[in-house]
């Protein structure tokens, strides 16, 4: 069964704890935590001090999506604050050496590691790292904002990643993020996705549990 990772970007921060309790009760699998720096993306969300507080009120697996420049500068703070998985963007990296160093650095701390690709970035851009990754995060919207429409280009990338995994015995999970609802979630599942991130679809509803259940 597909895993569901509600994005707390769409939660109400004035009662974040209650919103997290709702998704826990609704059988969410992971909590997706979107970090935006106003530089890599044109929006600012929250940093590691809020993650630390979040980690104290939930046992959900903390999936940290770093939409920031120079992720190598900040990732240790997110790890110290409770991240179980750190996903950084390939577009934020200068070169292969820097990327390999960051992957090793995260793994050495017994934290899972993933790389994300924006809608216009091909899967080939991360081919050299696929054997090392726990997660590949396919963006199905331009990163920066919740509530956007799903871009179909993600479906081909999910299929491509599923076939590269099969052909090479890789172990990564394929995660998709942006514009996920009942319809697009089903399309992604059929393409071979393992984890659905959903922000507005889950939180812009009176009944988060029903939304999570419908995605599953
Ligand atoms: O990374 C993100 C945006 O950059 C969010 O995870 C994503 O947009 C979730 O929101 P929604 O499900 O409303 O599209
Ligand atoms: Fe995200």
From TrEMBL:
Keyword Zinc in record: yes
Catalytic site positions: 34, 177
Any one GO MF annotation of this record: metal ion binding
Pathway: Carbohydrate degradation
Alphabetical list of Pfam families matching this protein: Ribul_P_3_epim
EC number: 5.1.3.1
Cofactor: Mn(2+); a divalent metal cation; Co(2+); Zn(2+)
Group of enzyme by EC: isomerase
Residues where substrate binds: 7, 65, 144-147, 177-179, 199-200
Gene3D superfamilies (alphabetical): Aldolase class I
Domain of life: Bacteria
Cofactor stoichiometry and binding remark: Binds 1 divalent metal cation per subunit.
Keyword Zinc: yes
GO BP term, example: pentose catabolic process
InterPro entries xrefs: Aldolase_TIM, Ribul_P_3_epim, Ribul_P_3_epim-like, RibuloseP-bd_barrel
UniProt keywords, alphabetically: Carbohydrate metabolism, Cobalt, Isomerase, Manganese, Metal-binding, Zinc
A Gene Ontology cellular-component term: cytoplasm
Coiled-coil boundaries: none
Reactions listed under catalytic activity: D-ribulose 5-phosphate = D-xylulose 5-phosphate
Residues the entry annotates as binding a divalent metal cation: 32, 34, 65, 177
Function summary: Catalyzes the reversible epimerization of D-ribulose 5-phosphate to D-xylulose 5-phosphate.
Family: Belongs to the ribulose-phosphate 3-epimerase family.
Protein name in the entry: Ribulose-phosphate 3-epimerase
Organism, scientific name: Faecalibacillus faecis
Gene name for this UniProt entry: rpe
